[in-house]
Amino acid sequence: QSPENCMFGKYIDECLNDPCINGQCINIDGSFRCECPLGYSIDISGITCEDTNECEIGNPCGNGTCANVVGGFECACDDGFEPGPMMTCEDINECSQNPLLCAFRCVNVIGSYECKCPTGYVLREDRRMCKDLNECSAKPGICKNGRCENTVGSYRCRCDQGFVANPTQTECIDIDECRVMGNLCKNGRCLNTLGSYNCVCKPGYTTDITGTQCVGKHDLHSNCLILTHSVPSSCSCFYNNECSTDPNLCGSNGVCQNSPGSFNCDCQRGYSLDPSGQSCEDMDECDGNHRCQHGCQNLVGGYRCSCPQGYLQHYQWNQCVGEHCFIFFNGNIKTFCDTG
Ligand SMILES: [Ca+2]
Ligand SMILES: [Ca+2]
Ligand SMILES: [Ca+2]
Ligand SMILES: [Ca+2]
């Protein structure tokens, strides 16, 4: 124990002199201490409680402006905030304070609130009421492969040819013509494309100008010069029997044979196909292999052998025989005539 603190043989109660400024004195063995109330803190002398500047410690107001006052602090809250139980500025829930704030739905956000609209509507200029959203102008590229039509609360797609709207009419979907329509691309295979379809044709057939029909190569050039797109009845001309359509086809010396997508001329004996392939012309047998020993004379549809003077073509043999000859029928046919 230090002698200074000892008087009359007992400890001094320093608090009797009220040494603490703005604070409460607490007597302790051989000394004392000052306790400061809330909002004050002890200075370096140890006996004076001074005001605490709460505004310099952290940010006690949060979303507001702090003002220091003796023994405490005050908060001036920002818009959308109000002082809470701990003085700190807290968000105001405007939506619960005023249920009529928004026409459709109120959503509280920190420091404010937002009005929301149902799908297909947007906020009006007042930010409270809702109006129709014109999706057609608001969303570029909407209704791809079609035309957009605005409606109140929504929109619908009017689709281009070859496309169909989905059940909600908000999209245009390619029609799979190959699957939806039967009997496309006869004489070929149907291949779906975006907005249309193509035919991949069998050998001997080719696509028309639209690519959506397989036509016989002959038909394309003669019977079906004018082909119309997507008219099923126009297909009929591809299956024409050219032979019956044109009885003069192949001429009088040939027989017309219809074939899928085309026709052939079968020529009579003694005739051959002309370069056009559409008629039969007389064959000049004398020009090639003939069986005449002497002269050969071409005839329409055949030929004749000629014999030197005094000889005749035998009616049966391919020989020239003398005008006066003897034929014996003696088991074998023999002639003693001079042969040419
Ligand atoms: Ca203070
Ligand atoms: Ca709020
Ligand atoms: Ca709309
Ligand atoms: Ca298609």
From TrEMBL:
Disulfide bonds: 15-25, 286-296
Cited SMART domains: EGF, EGF_CA
InterPro entries: EGF, EGF-like_Ca-bd_dom, EGF-type_Asp/Asn_hydroxyl_site, EGF_Ca-bd_CS, Growth_fac_rcpt_cys_sf, Nephronectin_domain, NOTCH1_EGF-like
This protein's UniProt keywords: Disulfide bond, EGF-like domain, Glycoprotein, Repeat, Secreted, Signal
Keyword Repeat: yes
GO MF entries: calcium ion binding
PROSITE patterns according to UniProt: ASX_HYDROXYL (PS00010), EGF_2 (PS01186), EGF_3 (PS50026), EGF_CA (PS01187)
A GO-annotated cellular component: extracellular region
Signal recorded as keyword: yes
Name under which the protein is recorded: EGF-like domain-containing protein
Gene source species: Xiphophorus couchianus
